[in-house]
Each structure stands twice: as structure tokens, then as C-alpha cells.
Design a protein that fits this description.
The structure is a single chain. The protein is mainly alpha-helical. The chain has a domain of 128 residues: Tetracycline Repressor, domain 2. The chain contains eight helices and no strands. Helix 1 crosses helix 6, helix 5 runs antiparallel to helix 7 and helix 7 packs across helix 8. The relative contact order is 0.10. One of its GO terms (biological process) is regulation of DNA-templated transcription. InterPro entries: Homeodomain-like_sf, HTH-type_TetR-like_transc_reg, HTH_TetR, Tet_transcr_reg_TetR-rel_C_sf. GO terms for molecular function: DNA binding. This is TetR/AcrR family transcriptional regulator.
Amino acid sequence: MDTNTVSSADKILEAATELFAANNYDATSIKEIAKLSGVNSALISYYFGGKKNLYIEVMNKQAAHLLALIDTVKDKDDLNPIQKIHLYTREVVEVQKQRPMQFHLIYRELLSPSGFCSNFVKSRLYRIHQFLYELVAQGIKEGYVKEMTPNYAAFTLESIIVFFFLTQNFVKELGAFDDDSADE
């Protein structure tokens, strides 16, 4: 594949990510994606086989960033489970700062499913839940956390992270939050 081919496909993915996150799947047209990416709309079918496959590819690419974080944190053998949860949370905040549309896209799919990404939700997001579940269970076993139901604790952690990002702009408007306080 030459650099023009890679460049066009990447431009399409970037534009599609932005538009799908802002509008949702149904409200985003191939024409809008082509216009924002600066490529001919026929290239979307050429590279991705259509809008549906492009959407699935965008979702997979967004999940890959989060799953890579899990692998990075898991490999930190010098950290206890609570430190790993803290590190994972800080890293998720960094991803949010660098790729804010990523979370919008995933949340939109969770709140208004497109109908063809159920495998995405089941497989990728389950891995995130399982990771947090395992850390909580390990923390209980090693005495870092009091006895509790790891499944509920993992869902609670996920909910806190999601709520933080969903309300971040509102809280900023109130003046009670700035980008630096997200690191704390």
C-alpha cells in the first residue's frame, strides 16, 4: 500500500470518528465523511466496503486504545492492585484529553446502539470490566480492599469514570474543574 492509500484511509477514519461521535451513525452521511476527510466518497466503499463497515472499524480502533491501556497496566508487576486501578484511571484521563471523541463515540453506542456493534460491546467492553473486576478481586484477596462484591465494585468504578467524562464540560462551566484537576 502506498502512502497516498494509507493517508486517504486514515483521513476517512479520522473524519468518520469525529462525525459519528458528534452526530451518531444514522445522522452521519458518506457525503459528510468524504467532505470532512477531503477525499472522494467512492474511497469509503473502496477501503471499508461502506458506511456500516467503516463504523465498525472506527469502533474497533477506538476500543484498541483502551485495550492497550489494560495490557500496559497489567504488565506493571511492581504495582499492587489499587495502584494499578489508579494508573489505569490516570491513563484513561490522558486518552480522554488526547482523543475526546473516542469516549463520545463509545458512550453514544452504549446509549443508542446502532444494532451492528453488539459484538463490540460484548467483547471489548467486557474486557475492560473483567480487568477492573480482577484488580478489585485481587485487592480483596491481598488485603488492600475490604470484603465486597468485585463485580459491583468494577461496575461502580466504570460508572464513576463514565460520569466524569459525560459531565466534564458542564462542571468546567461551573468553574469547579479544570484540566489539571483531572490528573488528581
